[in-house]
Design goal:
This protein is of the alpha+beta class and about 260 residues long. Helix content is about 30%, strand content about 20%. An eight-stranded antiparallel barrel has the order 1-2-7-5-6-4-3-8. Helix 4 packs across helix 6.
């Protein structure tokens, strides 16, 4: 609460107060960007706390050989994407459509195209949603699938487009060669991510209001916040998320529509 003071003092102090609030907001976004960089998926799939997924966790569920998602090096995941294509995301909040452009990031777009057409993102949670920053998804609900993709790195792409509102990029570890399956949608212009190597692959062209409505109440992930811990999602999948974070929103189905 403001202490009693003259009207003149209160008025002259209002502008600095707003400036301080703006600086604090900017600092929170910058801090979240650093955490995104540290927590993004990579060969070691390091969560926000820097804990790598253990070999024991990776072996917890032996893969069923008839599941194509367990074979990331198979021909099913090697197709070259069209120059442009659209994907419909059906979610627990509604539908939105994104358009991918291969010229923006050929390696990333090829990976996105192959993951979508093979059903990877079906029943996948928006597990890390930070208000006024971004919504992150792409850790699979099946721990065996997570283990299979843990080292399936995407070669780096140059940053051609910018991380503006509605644009989608792959999350990553410390360097751009650690991208695998995790993506994020920018809620706002996050151009500071461009120089860090986050190369946009697509943008939301319909239904951004649905993206804005994705549940963000858990905020940052553990241990820096009260949201899900990435290591536990990797090891336990949707069972962990549904039991401990019941309000999360999910992609029910993602499909290529043109």
């Amino acid at each position: 609460m403001m202490q009693p003071t003259s009207l003149r003092t209160a008025r002259t102090g209002a502008q600095p107060a707003r400036a301080v609030a703006a600086r604090r907001s900017g600092s929170r976004i910058a801090a979240a960007a650093v955490i995104l960089f540290a927590a993004g998926c990579g060969a070691s799939d390091r969560p926000a706390g820097g804990q790598a997924v253990s070999d024991e966790s990776a072996k917890a569920a032996e893969p069923a050989t008839d599941n194509p998602l367990l074979q990331p090096r198979s021909a099913a995941f090697q197709a070259t994407a069209p120059d442009t294509f659209r994907v419909r995301f059906e979610t627990t909040k509604g539908e939105f459509i994104v358009e991918a452009v291969r010229a923006w990031a050929p390696n990333g777009v090829d990976r996105f195209y192959n993951l979508v057409r093979n059903g990877y993102y079906n029943d996948v949670a928006f597990f890390r949603v930070i208000e006024n920053f971004m919504a992150q998804f792409g850790i699979h609900g099946d721990p065996a699938v997570n283990a299979a993709w843990r080292n399936a790195r995407i070669p780096p792409d140059p940053v051609v487009e910018s991380n503006r509102r509605g644009y989608i990029s792959f999350a990553m570890g410390r360097t751009p060669d650690t991208r695998t399956t995790q993506l994020f949608i920018n809620f706002r212009d996050n151009t500071q991510l461009d120089e860090m190597g986050f190369a946009p692959i697509a943008r939301v062209v319909e239904g951004m209001e649905v993206v804005d409505a994705i549940y963000s109440g858990y905020g940052e992930g553990a241990p820096n916040g009260r949201g899900p811990a990435q290591a536990q999602i990797q090891a336990q999948g949707n069972k962990y998320l549904r039991e401990s974070f019941p309000q999360l929103d999910y992609i029910t189905r993602a499909s290529i529509i043109e």
